[in-house]
Design a protein that fits this description.
The protein has 5 helices and 56 strands. It is mainly β. It has a 6-stranded antiparallel β-sheet with strand order 44-45-46-47-48-49. Strands 4-5-6-7 form a 4-stranded antiparallel β-sheet, with no helix packed on it.
């Protein structure tokens, strides 16, 4: 092959005797990877070694399936950021947020079970002591019984606030600390709640590693580990006094610590020495964890990304990131969409051709490490081939404090012909620094929508649509509250009168399309440089090829990658038939292309059927994924619980081939 490397991409689908494995009107839901849009405050592996749970300043609580590499479920858990969470048992968890609220959720579906607003103060950390008893930390330490509703406050006050807590079930003690506290406190949960002080101060995280080992990460760049059995303490200090430890995790006599300087360090607690360092792009790390079997290590950063590593090879295996960040502003100019996001991305989309142009503010490594962020504030005007818009530049991801140290408003120009962004001038705004700082101080998280001036009310034909700031739903004067809520607060509304379309856009990264009667038509997500996907309420979609890796399907309480359902739900013709962008002949062309694909794969659409017990496949390959060889050898094992497997489809670098079996199995 003339030393040309072959980049190998494989996928497999099954064909079954009794029909195809997809079907209509089933409980199947597509899941798009919205991810986190800002600092992740905590991530933890579930002990099933299948899921990761993360919480963030964006208010989101997310469950990830790390074996498939996809987001399973995301909810806005708290309006002003999620401060902490803990697993209650295998099937539920508890969260506390900046809205002074405690919530109990099912796992992994994240259905809200209980909500408590009557807490005596704002709490910053939570730990599950029993299924019904929670320990909470604010200025004081509280015990809340969710069955009886009884809350008891311990007569021990923090210097400022307690921000980290953990429970040791075998020793029946709590450890609790804070960034401004002079010491870590341990509390016996057996009344009368005996309190002991451990003299390590300024804790970012306290965490029990095993029965007798307590880990403590502090803002001075030191990790302390305290052995309750031997009554001995040890410490490990980072090389730089200005660096500090944000989180700590334990597995098989090694400790992982996350740092503000953007690397995770693995240390041997017996030798007190460095084993390895993990780093990606220098962005500060906010949380770290090991899987319960120790085979995986993960860390989260200040920009909302999660990185997953194999501990045996120390190789990066998976990156979880927001495919569609929060939308701040959207303007319709000459039937084209101009969309501005909270991470500095700006896009133009032609709705008729689906052509997309994207650009963003490029950050240096130093700016990334400092948490610098650009967020689009307004899209002002299109003059010739130049789009004028405003941004706010800030350090909203700063790990040291929730307050800004800088914020400035900038006027910018986007040359669409050259796809070049230029910062034209700084806009004098004496109030912006004070205004944003006050929001940080009162809310503990920065939400740029307070600075926006979007449209919350608009008319389309004879109907009027309105939203309330921070709402997930739209109201119209004809029907009241519309269905198909956004998954995060709506940023604003826009209309295209000539097409009879209402557009709503929000922090979930989606643009939702409605007709004048208030009927939901589809959701549109834009991602990366040129990618898009329309998804309608029947789960059909029309998408560019590259974005499909960001789509999963929930079926029978299991998450699957898009390939398992693509042949049925990838229906551009059905999606575009509902939207006013294509002519009938263009839709007919899309329909013919779909049936041509099915014919090539020898699939009879009249026998489409859902199978509860889906076939399984395992692929064993020990070679390199980038090779100069003419061929590779795969060991493939297929199994169908119903013994109906007649063939499998193998896709190699986009080329699909059907391999029929001699007899069903």
């Amino acid at each position: 092959m003339n030393n040309t490397k072959l980049q190998i991409f494989l996928f497999f689908l099954f064909l079954v005797v009794s029909g195809f494995l997809f079907g209509q009107k089933q409980d199947i839901h597509p899941v798009f990877q919205t991810g986190h849009n800002s600092k992740i405050n905590k991530l933890r592996f579930h002990k099933d070694n299948l899921h990761i749970v993360s919480i963030g300043d964006d208010g989101k609580l997310i469950v990830w399936n790390h074996k498939i590499g996809l987001q399973r479920k995301s909810v806005i858990a708290h309006n002003q950021g999620v401060k902490d969470f803990d697993f209650i048992n295998d099937s539920s968890l508890v969260t506390v947020g900046g809205d002074s609220c405690l919530k109990v959720w099912s796992f992994p579906d994240l259905e809200l079970i209980k909500e408590v607003h009557s807490l005596p103060e704002k709490v910053y950390c939570v730990s599950s002591v029993k299924d019904s008893l929670f320990a909470l930390g604010g200025q004081f330490i509280h015990f809340y019984n969710r069955k009886s509703g009884y809350l008891q406050t311990i007569d021990y006050r923090s210097k400022e606030v307690f921000t980290t807590i953990d429970y040791n079930e075998k020793l029946r003690i709590l450890a609790i600390g804070g960034k401004s506290e002079n010491n870590v406190v341990t509390i016996s949960v057996d009344k009368p709640y005996a309190i002991t002080k451990i003299f390590h101060d300024k804790s970012n995280r306290v965490r029990f590693a095993d029965t007798y080992l307590l880990l403590e990460a502090n803002i001075d760049g030191v990790v302390s580990y305290n052995n309750f059995k031997s009554n001995k303490s040890y410490s490990y200090a980072l090389d730089d006094d200005l660096n500090f430890v944000s989180d700590v995790a334990y597995s098989n006599n090694i400790i992982a610590l996350g740092t503000a300087y953007g690397y995770a360090r693995i240390i041997d607690i017996e030798k007190h020495s460095t084993v390895a360092n993990y780093a990606v792009d220098g962005v500060g790390i906010s949380s770290v964890d090991f899987s319960s079997n120790g085979e995986l290590f993960s860390f989260a950063d200040l920009q909302g990304n999660i990185y997953l590593f194999d501990t045996s090879t120390k190789q990066l295996t998976t990156v979880f990131s927001a495919a569609a960040p929060a939308i701040n502003v959207l303007e319709v100019i000459d039937k084209e969409l101009f969309v501005g996001y909270n991470n500095g991305i700006i896009r133009k989309m032609n709705l008729f051709s689906n052509q997309i142009i994207s650009n963003s503010f490029k950050l240096s490594d130093k700016e990334k490490s400092e948490g610098i962020n650009y967020s689009i504030l307004s899209i002002d005007s299109l003059v010739g081939k130049s789009l004028w818009f405003e941004v706010i530049k800030s350090d909203r991801h700063n790990i040291h404090t929730s307050r800004l140290s800088s914020a400035e408003r900038l006027s910018c120009k986007w040359n669409l012909d050259e796809n070049l962004i230029t910062i034209v001038r700084k806009i004098k705004d004496k109030q912006i620094k004070k205004y944003v700082d006050s929001l940080f101080y009162s809310n503990g998280s920065y939400q740029v929508e307070y600075l926006l001036h979007n449209q919350y009310k608009c008319s389309l034909l004879n109907n009027e649509f309105t939203i309330e700031p921070g709402s997930l739903v739209i109201h119209d004067k004809l029907h009241g509250e519309l269905d198909q809520m956004h998954e995060a607060p709506i940023s604003g509304l826009a209309v295209i009168d000539e097409l009879g379309l209402l557009l709503s856009y929000g922090q979930d990264g989606s643009i939702r399309l409605w007709n004048p009667a208030g009927e939901y038509l589809a959701s549109l997500f834009l991602s990366d440089q040129y990618d898009f996907i329309y998804m309608d309420k029947e789960s059909y979609y029309f998408a560019s090829k590259e974005i499909l890796s960001r789509v999963g399907f929930l079926f029978s309480n299991k998450l699957y990658s898009y390939e398992q359902f693509d042949l049925f739900y990838n229906r551009p013709d059905l999606v575009m038939k509902k939207l006013p962008f294509m002519q009938p002949q263009e839709i007919a062309t899309l329909k013919r292309a779909y049936y041509k694909r099915l014919k090539k794969l020898d699939i009879d659409t009249s026998s489409f059927k859902i199978l509860e017990n889906l076939p399984h496949i395992s692929v064993e390959y020990k070679g390199e994924y980038s090779t100069t060889e003419d061929s590779i050898v795969l060991k493939i094992q297929c199994k169908d619980p119903e013994n109906n497997l007649s063939a499998y489809v193998c896709g190699v670098n986009g080329q699909e081939t059907v391999y029929k079996l001699k007899e069903p199995r």
